[in-house]
Amino acid sequence: MEFGKLANISQVDFTLPKDHSDTLPILQKKSKNTTPKIFVGCPVWANMAWKGKIYPKNAKSTDFLELYARQFNCIELNLTHYRIPDFQMIRKWKKVTPPEFRFCPKIFQGISHHNQLQNVQSQVLDFVEILSELEFRLGLSFLQLPPHFSPQKADILIRFLENFPKGFPLSVEFRHPDWFSPKFEDITNLVFEKMKNLQISSVITDTAGRRDVIHQRLTIPTAVIRFVGNCLDPSDYQRVDDWIQRLKIWLDEGLENVYFWIHEPENILAPDLVAYFIQELNQELGFSLKKPRFLPQNIQTSLF
User: How far apart are CA 160 and CA 172, in angstroms?
Assistant: First the structure.
């Protein structure tokens, strides 16, 4: 992910902000007797660098999804941002993934970026109809607003959300800095209130160069976190530790679902941080999520 990428992170304050004042009331309205569902994954399954790491060395690219789904329980499905798959592809995905696996499709860019959410009803219906074929393997979809989509376009966004097909789970990622500016607080509050009423979740993005987008504002008892690491810099691990402590608070207060998607440059090291996240989450919160399994690495030794 290039959004918020910095060449030098030495001066970045990675401290998680305090929760928005709306967050705990959202959680406390819900029953605390339900067992929370935790989904952790990466943004891709097709990564050749994972051959010999978490995939067999002789793995075929056509088998990558099946191999991925043995290691992770969800995928941030960026593929759907670039094209809407057909029914045949969806059925293949279902065939090679276990029932507990969740796909989280990113809304097609023709809807979000090219047409700016306007005059897109037919595209939305096509997207929803085809991705609904995932049935219970559908986690949630997420709408990534373009970086230039500012609060001045709030009316367009609200109309889009109101007309979005009910029952198809949706979340929204905001990128324009004005969404987090006090100057536009009234507009932002209006949009988030609409999302709450429509049961649409908010995406929180944790990236080095845009600390404002860690808004810590939930609209429903579902947390959607896009975490962007920095090649397993020590700060990556500290940030993960901080997130686990924040999730612990939210889960104690009534959080029902967590989607935690981990990015690393080229995503080569993403499985490593996923493994660490799950290990610490299990230990701190008493879960029993399955960690990715790494293949033994051949280490050549020298004789002296």
Answer: 11
Judge contact between 65 and 97, C-beta under 8 A.
yes
Q: What is the C-alpha to C-alpha distance for residues 226 and 210, in angstroms, rounded to an integer?
A: 12
Cα separation values, 280 from 19, 243, 288, Å:
22, 11, 11
Q: Is the pLDDT of residue 8 over 70?
A: yes
Tokens representing 233 are: 């810099």
pLDDT value, residue 284: 96
> 0.90 exceeded by the pTM?
yes
Report the distance separating Cα 129 and Cα 122, nearest Å. 10
- For the chain, list the domains and their CATH numbers: 23-285 (3.20.20.410)
b/e map 94-106, b = 16+ CB within 10 Å: bebbeeebbbbbb
Cβ atoms of residues 229 and 262 within 8 Å: yes
- Token readout for 253 is 């207060």
Per the CB < 8 A criterion, the answer to whether 103 and 136 are in contact is no
250 vs 256: CA distance, rounded Å: 9
pLDDT band at 298 (very low <50, low <70, confident <90, very high): low
Quote the distance between the C-alpha of residue 265 and its chain's center: 16
